[in-house]
Specification:
142 residues; alpha+beta; Thiol Ester Dehydrase, Chain A; 5-stranded antiparallel β-sheet; 34% strand
Length: 142
């Protein structure tokens, strides 16, 4: 499953060169993850109501071409790895010509409300199985 959202960078997100500042990409990634979970039927607020949190543990960005104000982009978000304690998402930002502008990755760890790491399989097996099913279907699509 690939979740898609449209990005229309705001002027406030630019630097003095008119390029979208690198600090905005983490926000774009979060927007992609929120939409991904919503698309798979598990909105973020439902995850939090179950007493779970997702903590960002690693972020990687590869800037291929600059994003510019006044242009539209599409953010593709895909779950590429899932385990009992963490998951990894891949993000691709595509321009209107279908060129890959940016590739990013984030690792997230499952935490309880006390911000302690949890084993998802033991903590909430139903939610674990939903994510595992999506990740397994990703393998079949590649």
């Amino acid at each position: 499953m690939i979740s898609l959202i449209q990005l229309e960078p705001r002027y406030a997100e630019t630097d003095q060169m008119g390029i979208i500042h690198h600090s905005n990409y983490a926000i774009y990634y979060e927007m992609g993850r929120v939409q991904f979970c919503k698309d798979m039927g598990v909105p973020f607020d439902m995850i939090e109501k179950r007493g779970l949190r997702l903590a960002l543990t690693k972020i990687k960005s590869q800037f291929k071409k600059p994003l510019l104000f006044g242009h539209m982009y599409q953010l593709h978000t895909k779950l590429i790895s899932f385990s009992k304690v963490k998951m990894t998402f891949k993000y691709m930002i595509i321009d209107e010509s279908n060129d890959v502008m940016h590739i990013g990755y984030t690792d997230l760890a499952w935490l309880n409300q006390e911000l302690k790491p949890v084993n998802m399989f033991k903590y909430d097996e139903t939610l674990y199985q939903i994510f595992k099913h999506v990740e397994e279907n990703e393998d079949e699509e590649d």
